[in-house]
Amino acid sequence: MRAMKIVTVVGARPQFVKAAVVSRAIQAHNAHCEISRLTEVIVHTGQHYDETMSQIFFEEMEIPTPAYNLGVGSGSHAAQTGEILMKLEPVLLAEQPDVVLVYGDTNSTLAAALAAAKLNMPIGHVEAGLRSYNRAMPEEINRILTDHISTFLFCPTPTSVSILRQEGITQGVHLTGDVMFDASLHYAAIAETRSNALAQHRLLPQHYYLATVHRPVNADVMEQMQHILRAFCQFEFPVVFPVHPRTQKIVEAILAHDGDFGHVSQLRLIEPVGYFDMLTLEKHARAIITDSGGVQKEAYFFRVPCVTLRQETEWVETVETGWNRLCAIDEEEIVARVRSAQGGEWIPVFGDGAASAQIVNILLRDVLSQ
Ligand code: UD1
Ligand code: UDP
């Protein structure tokens, strides 16, 4: 029997969603194959720690309990990244994995990749080759550096493969499709029976908008958030807005200062929701308004028009097909874009829903053959 050990490092909400389906593919492999065995050791950096930002995803998506929690919590970029580096190194030395899997573009991603690279351990980057070409975004730095030190680059789309090629990265690049598409397909079916989010928030299908905002350029700037909240209060339909903890204080401050803009009943500020409720809210929304990377894609998966509160997006296919439109942070423009949001052409650009199985198969083939 041949064996391979994977250390998976996650820390932030979108990483739990992505890693969940790869964990499922690992377990499915072990259940069906007797000649090779995979061991997955999950490390949670602790970057996200609120129950609604972390634990709920492990429970709903049945992600194996992390063997380690580094407990780094919140902090500056340097403090967070540095602490993960320091705390992860002894874990990697003790575990001696065949490959370290990292996801997306957070500080947990970069710190884990750097810790592994310095120990000469192979790194697999899931969601490689994404670029916004805006280096003011912390995620852009994290993506570029992680891609350039990774051994296996698992790309969600053909665009991401060609971006890596332009940067001279061709070795170890695999077009697998998007693990978030796998997740949406698998868990949306379960969410059908497990979520009553519409009834709970008194919403009718197609008669509400769903919003999320957490990018520092929006969520950390009073003027930007004032434009956004004022826009949200102008619609004839409710706007259900699960508020990310980064955004919480500024939203409270604006409402305390500006009142309810005269339309408070249409704005439904709620706590961050679990994945089942989120999928349900996304699927039935009239349109989605967001600055999240993952939520833009999920809007596309469910064929829901999306307005993205950013100047650029990494997920260019969602815009090119007509489902997603970028929008300046201006009250009137947000209102106009959301009112006119519409669908477009739907092409299976994010793969066939089997990206996670492909990732596991590539690792089995390429790591075990070394
Ligand atoms: C991080 C990622 C971002 C990703 C987002 C997903 C980086 C640089 N950013 O942004 O790419 O899109 O996660 O949600 O890695 N907080 C809590 N409780 C928590 C977590 C955070 O209260 O469980 C608050 C803290 O005040 C913290 C702030 O949110 O300072 C920001 O958290 P942080 O993890 O630094 O960045 P995010 O904005 O969540
Ligand atoms: N999400 C969720 N509950 C929420 C908001 C988001 O389950 O209240 C899910 C969402 O469906 C997607 C992921 O979290 O799968 C996206 O994470 P986030 O927007 O925090 O990060 P980003 O994708 O921008 O990095």
3D architecture notes:
The protein has helices spanning 13-32, 55-60, 77-95, 107-118, 138-148, 158-166, 179-194, 197-200, 216-219, 222-232, 245-258, 275-283, 293-301, 316-320, 331-339, 355-368, and strands at residues 2-10, 36-44, 68-69, 99-103, 123-126, 152-155, 173-175, 209-212, 239-242, 267-270, 287-290, 306-308, 324-326. The protein has 370 residues and is α/β, with parallel strands linked by helices. It folds into two domains: 2-178 and 351-368, Rossmann fold, CATH 3.40.50; 197-339, Glycogen Phosphorylase B (Rossmann fold, 3-Layer(aba) Sandwich), CATH 3.40.50.2000. It has a seven-stranded parallel beta sheet with strand order 3-2-1-4-5-6-7, sandwiched between helices. Strands 10-9-8-11-12-13 form a six-stranded parallel beta sheet, with helices on both faces. Helix 5 links the parallel strand 5 and strand 6. The longest helix is centred in the first third of the chain and has 20 residues, at 13-32. The protein is globular. 48% of the residues are buried. The mean pLDDT is 96. It binds uridine-diphosphate-N-acetylglucosamine (UD1) and uridine-5'-diphosphate. Uridine-diphosphate-N-acetylglucosamine (UD1) binds at residues 12-14, 47-50, 53, 74, 105-107, 138-139, 214, 245-246. Belongs to the UDP-N-acetylglucosamine 2-epimerase family. This is UDP-N-acetylglucosamine 2-epimerase.
